[in-house]
Amino acid sequence: MDKRPGIDIVWFKRDLRLRDHAPLQAALETGRGLADRRLLLLYCFEPSVMADPNYDDRHWRFVHESLVDLNKQLSRVVVANTTTRDTGAPAIWVFQREVVDVLTALQTRFAIQTIYSHQETGLKVTYDRDKAVARFCREQGITWSECQSNGVRRGLKSSAGWQRDWLQTMQAEQHQPALTQWHPAPLPADWFAAERGPDLPASWQVANPLFQPGGERNGHRYLTSFLDERIRFYEASISKPLESRRGCSRLSPYLAWGCLSARQVYQQYSYALQQPEPSAAGQIHGSTLFVNRLRLQSYFTELFERNERIEFVNKNPDFDRIEKQVNTDQLTAWQDGQTGYPLIDACMRCLRQTGYLNFRMRALVTSFLTHHLFQHWQAGGWHLARQFTDFEPGIHYSQLQLQSGILASDRQPVRIYNPVKQSKEHDPDGVFVRQWLPELAACPTAYIHEP
Questions:
Q1: Sign of the CA dihedral running 87, 93, 94, 97
Q2: Confidence band (pLDDT; 50, 70, 90) for 414?
Q3: The domain 309-447: what is its CATH number?
Q4: What are phi and psi of 10, to 5 degrees?
Q5: How far is 76 from 71, CA to CA, in rounded Å?
Q6: CATH code for the domain defined by 6-147
Q7: DSSP letters spanning 108-168
Q8: Given pLDDT bands bounded at 50, 70 and 90, which one contains residue 2?
Q9: Could you say which of 11, 24, 309, 426 would form a disulfide bridge with 177 (CB–CB 3.0 to 4.6 Å)?
Q10: How confident is the model at residue 83, as a pLDDT?
């Protein structure tokens, strides 16, 4: 007879929130009223994922900050059975090991019954990881229950009906986990110390004030400030490198890492539109620009779900015949903001130091790399992925190929941005350029835009 206690697991990945969390709600409902149904909350910093060329310490600092926020929130929850919970133990158990290794270790101590998680549309490294987890679950007789994420449909060959399905998901009732019904699964401190893996790097645990802070509650603060005030500047500032830092929503890292769900943003935006003035959102009179961008986030992720090979190859194979010779000096100059084109260099230095760049400038620096310098999109794509705090694989690789001209067709022509024209239009007085290129502080405005 198996004497191991049974547990369920909620495996957090890119869904670092407690509200509108379908897997967490499902796990809590399964164990409701069952005193012996223990639930373990799990996050793994996976060495294979951290070593992927798309990731950087800035991503893991944001994740760590988000986990700290979740643990603080959960520490205030009066759980269903406090007698089995060590008040000094974390609510979410964090390992720095491959997730299959962690599950294997847990299975020696517990009988894992069900693993709950969101579906993840990620890189090849996480896709291979998920296949390994599925294989482990089959071998161990464990149920793995995956929930759809942000309206992204899996296993379809076309986008037919996508907009209708997405809208239904956005308008559906949010999932509200009953956290007071949580029966924590206890982990002995000595066992956890032996199995958790190395200590997390100190650099992840020191906040950088130039970057947006991680965390579900910070995500809601940004959302509230945007809808209450900053949205009035949205349309006028969306393409401008300086003004966009305030006028854009700045929600992208919280959506990318799941501190907010797309549905939460959609519904709070819709509610704000219905409020009488002086609500800032009410004053935009139902502009569709913001919600269209929110929709495209899920749309491009679903496209990547069906075409994950574009992480490595041209979606349009006709472009394989165009040979691009690697010029290390030019690539390094572009990465370091030393090309001699002021707006390009200001954008690249700003991105490196803050992790953020607005959409128009992202398109510009990609176009410059692939069309003006004639370098391959993949080397630039890895660098940009490491710089963007809001790195989202589906959006990143779709946009990377689009702005590089690889998705060109009769309906989608090649777009080549003129860096001088963009500078004159979107930073006419050179304020952004001078902020990030102090060597040009005394340059007359008449010449600030020219290489």
A1: positive
A2: confident
A3: 1.10.579.10
A4: -105, 115
A5: 9
A6: 3.40.50.620
A7: HHSEEEEEEEE-----HHHHHHHHHHHHHHHHHT-EEEEE-BTTB--S-SS-TTHHHHHHH
A8: confident
A9: 24
A10: 56
List C-alpha distances in Å: 426 to 28, 285, 371, 447: 50, 25, 21, 15
Contact (CB, 8 A) for 259 and 216 = yes
Say how far apart CA 395 and CA 363 lie, in whole Å: 12
Q: Tell which residue, 390, 331, 336, has the closest CA to residue 358.
A: 390
Contacts of 279 (CB under 8 A, 6+ apart): 227, 228, 272
159-184 residues labelled b (16+ CB within 10 A) or e (exposed)? eeebeebbeebbeeeebebebebbbb
pLDDT of residue 205: 93
Alpha carbon 320 to its chain's center: 30
Amino acid at 281: A
In order, the DSSP letters of 192-246 are HHHHS-SPPPGGGGS--TTSPPPSHHHHHHHHHHHHHTGGGGHHHHTT-TTTHHH
DSSP string, 147-164: E-BTTB--S-SS-TTHHH
Other CB atoms within 10 A of residue 55 CB: 17
**Residue 278, preceding peptide bond in cis (omega within 30° of 0):** yes
Joined tokens for residue 210:
């130039």
pLDDT in tens, 294-304: 999 999 999 99
DSSP 447: G
**Helix (H, G, I), strand (E, B), or coil: what is residue 187?**
coil
Residue type, 372: H
| Per-residue three-class SS string for 318-350 | HHHHCCCCCCHHHHHHHHHCCCCCHHHHHHHHH
CA-derived radius of gyration, the chain: 23
Alpha carbon distance 67, 71 (integer Å): 6
Q: What's at 76, amino acid-wise?
A: R
| Amino acid at the residue 316 | N
Pairwise CA distance, residues 341 & 208, whole Å: 28
